[in-house]
Amino acid sequence: MRNPHNSADYARVERLLKRTLASVCGQTDADFRVIVVANQQPGFALPENVEVVLVDFAPPDSHRGSRISMKAIRRDKGTKLAVGVLAARRIGATHVMQFDADDFVSRNIAAFVNARSDQQGWYFDRGYVLYERRDLLRAMSDFHQTCGTSFVLRQDLYGPADLGLDASQDEIYAAFGADVITDVLGSHPATLALLAARGVTLQPLPFRGATYVLETGENWSGECYQGFGWPVRPSLRREFGFPPRPMRESISSFLASTARLARRRLPAPAHG
Questions:
Q1: What DSSP assignment string belongs to 14-46?
Q2: Arithmetic mean of pLDDT over the chain
Q3: At what angle do helices 169-176 and 70-90 cross, to 10 degrees?
Q4: In the chain, which residues have pLDDT < 70?
Q5: Which of 24, 85, 134, 175 lies 20 to 30 Å (CA to CA) from residue 247?
Q6: pLDDT score, position 6
Q7: Would residue 272 count as lying in a domain?
Q8: pLDDT tens digit sequence for 125-142
Q9: Nearest Cα to 70, choosing from 201, 171, 186?
Q10: What is the Cα 202 distance to its own chain's centre?
């Protein structure tokens, strides 16, 4: 979880987390655990399989709001997720999947991974993007280059760090190493290449494993992707745990999106 200081609306952040946890905990295989690393206890009842680890890390940036420097994001996010890895090791996890607190995940991931617990891990080369305000969905390729909710790694691949959950950020940074903190846990575009250079071969997940959510008002990356999408099919709403939305609202958004796209393609009127 981001630091409350670096949030436009932390109550909104928690509402997004609540529905993300509902999505993650909708797994078809109940043999999984979820660890939330945060600066403060969430203000809502947690699902049964979820535990919270609190850290006292300082705000990563003095600026109030969600738009802060990438360097600050990587350090804050990377060290918090490292605490999550340490907590996962304590409960005997074979694999760790990091996920952002506003995304949705397929309910089939736990069953898939538990049936293959000896493998190194997977990356999500395919997924979806959900346009929050319009309730429109589209397929996305090279998903792992865009969204951080896109890797499942065997826990030992994060390195041999062995610290208490109350370790400082500096201790965590030193134990895991700068590349793991900044390029595996704190970011994602370079993860596949970094692991390959270490001899770690990840396989592409053979189904679309996650959904990247835009238009929430709290995206660290801002709302830099605008585009076309389709109304969400009921089967995908069930698989990913998307909140229900009136069908006519989705269709209206789809028609408006189509109209905008058509206007962009119209030739300029002739003059003279």
A1: HHHHHHHHHHHTT-SS----EEEEESS--SSPP
A2: 88
A3: 80
A4: 65-66, 216-227, 246-272
A5: 24
A6: 87
A7: no
A8: 999 999 988 899 999 999
A9: 186
A10: 18
Element (H, E) at 251: helix 247-265
Among 182, 188, 80, residue whose Cα is nearest residue 127? 188
Q: Could you give the number of structural domains in the chain?
A: 1
Nearest to 131 by CA among 253, 240, 258, 265: 253
Residues in the chain: 272
pLDDT single digits (tens) 64-101: 766 778 898 899 999 999 999 999 999 999 999 999 99
Residue 176 structure tokens = 């895991």
* Residue span of the structural domain in which 56 resides: 4-265
Which pTM does this prediction carry?
0.85
Contact at 8 Å (CB) between 222 and 214?
no
